[in-house]
Design brief:
Blueprint lengths: L18 H5 L7 H9 L7 H9 L9 H9 L3 H13 L3 H5 L8 H6 L9
Length: 120
């Protein structure tokens, strides 16, 4: 049989990857839907927490990712639940929003559309 290795992580067979590991290699969150969902938190979280949540969606390294995550976690019940879901529930969510946590090469990330609106 033929074995296919991951080009991003040497000595890793693609067939041995977990589902979330596969998603880290190709899935991006639609930013229009992401922002729409964050808008639904308005009035339930402070503006600075909303800004921290929005700042995570980036192709560039965050100047203070741990600080932003801490601000979100301490930003009230809704914000903490949102963050917990992104870290523990839908484990692919942060890599799908934040390219440095993704395995999608930066040039491909930048070249791909940031929304699925053209497909809808």
């Amino acid at each position: 049989p033929r074995y296919v290795l991951c080009v991003l992580v040497s000595r890793t067979l693609l067939r041995n990857l977990e589902p979330y590991d596969h998603l880290r290699r190709f899935y991006r969150q639609c930013l229009a839907q992401y922002k729409r969902n964050i808008c639904s938190l308005r009035g339930q979280v402070h503006k600075d927490v909303e800004v921290a949540i929005l700042s995570i969606a980036s192709a560039e390294p965050h100047p203070d990712l741990q600080g932003a995550l801490k601000k979100i976690k301490k930003g009230g019940k809704k914000a903490a639940a949102w963050l917990k879901d992104k870290i523990e529930g839908t484990k692919f969510a942060l890599p799908a929003l934040y390219q440095p946590n993704s395995l999608i090469p930066l040039e491909i990330w930048r070249a791909s559309p940031s929304t699925t609106n053209g497909n809808e």
